[in-house]
Amino acid sequence: MRVLITNAATSLGQALAAGLGDTHQVRLTDPEPRFGIQSDIGHDSETDALVKDIDIVVHLAYAPRAGDGEITWLDRNTRGTYNLLWAAAAAEVEHVVLLSTLDLFVPYEEDLTVDETWKPLPSCAPAVLGAHLAEFTAREFAHSHELRITIARLGHLVRAEEVADQAYDPMWLEERDAAQAVGQLVQKGPAGQYNAIHIQSAGARARFSVEHAKSHLSFDPQYNFEANP
Prior knowledge:
Elements: E1 2-5, H1 11-20, E2 25-30, E3 37-38, H2 45-51, E4 56-59, H3 70-90, E5 95-101, H4 126-143, E6 149-154, E7 156-158, E8 172-174, H5 175-188, E9 194-199, H6 211-217
Parallel strand pairs: 1-2, 1-4, 2-3, 4-5, 5-6, 6-9, 7-8
Helix pairs in contact: 1-5, 3-4
């Protein structure tokens, strides 16, 4: 399959490119010129060209970067997501996987078993609000039957070797496990017009359940961080 990955300069973007590149034709785009096709994803012919002949778009809507201001962040999550999905719909892309964040569910009490059927509770923090607005935009495209969309809400991305001596975060998700899950979503295809799935570590102290990911994707996270204090 032909896969477009946005925000490819990020660490997760590079991990996805490496993993998906073994079995798929991968096209990369990023606001920076060093990684694939440089694009700010405007409402223009350049964005149309990005999605031309693409089967699946993996949109790293939630991809914080050092130095991003609030306006830049919200613009990429709203206008950028809308422009990308508009072009993808016009190009008849088969499936869009939009990466969001489990921080949308942090306001719920920790002893509650929160899963994909629960309603997000976004805060006014730009990163979280931006993710919520990106999800809202994607849901509208799905409900109008313009696109089939999967929302993958990720935990806090880390590399196990970089946090080996740090205090445990119950929302950690190893970057390689995230890449595994997204790769499975690409391979499996959409589960209906609109679907959401939660991805994080699966240790005994993990904040959110990943049972749906395990059953739907055979998601098998390799890192549970149980050795962290």
